[in-house]
Amino acid sequence: MLEDMNRDNGYAGPDAVDCEPVSAGGQEEDGGEVSFSERVGGQIRIVFGSTMLGSTLIVTYTIFVLNMAYYGSVYGLPFVLTDVMQTDSAANELLIGVLWEFVGFLFAFVFGMSMTRKRAMRWYLCLCAISFLAFVLGAHAPQQATDAAHYGSIARWTAKSSIDANALIAKIGYYGTKVGLAVGFLICYQYSVEIYPTSARMTGCAITLAGGRVAAMLAPMVYEGMVGLTNSFLSFFFIVVAFMLVNIVLIDWLPFETAGKGLADTLEDLVADFTTPEHSARSPPGSPERRSPERRL
To answer: What is the pTM of this model?
Structure first.
């Protein structure tokens, strides 16, 4: 194949191809066969080994929170948008929300090109947490000024406002969650691919994706359970915000920053890339060499 490529490009000199063929998949360099169980076991040992265990758990939790927030919102919001946002059609608001996700993709592109992965994940979590709280504030505030005394000064102001401030706050929060979650899907999944070496990348990605699938399956049941337990849909969003606040703290414990770096082929290459003197001189506080040994994951 390489010879054909060189010939097509007009070069067929004696040194046109200079390479050594690699061993076939499933074979060791000495020709011995490597069983499927041994290959899988080696990848599992990398993903859940001492070097990658902390990253695997935190990234899986991050993907879990992202999917819990997204699919819980997708399931629950159609039931309440008409009342909360004072609109005639929940379908129209859902469509507008989808359009705001495209704005989120644009933000994800900007974040991905201008900041580190961990900082971008913190921005997504902060944006979503604030947006969910704004939605809860707008949904929880009373619609009549006579009932506002039970909700505090902000609720009294919104109830007396000449405009429908409650619905406006809820609408801003709703659109903000669409933007933030779109950013999260791109940045978090990108990071989950980049942290693992090639020798275990598919296994590591499969585990983190499984965490997201579990959250997607649980989200409707958690939503319905919280509604049945508290007689309010707002409790689910309080839980989501709590998950996100915990996630913000955990992001600092991720030892590897992958922005602007090539993908490592082996675990040794991954560790070596983050322990070189050049990287130590420019590494952020959250990187492995800037941490004390007991905080490294």
So the answer is: 0.75
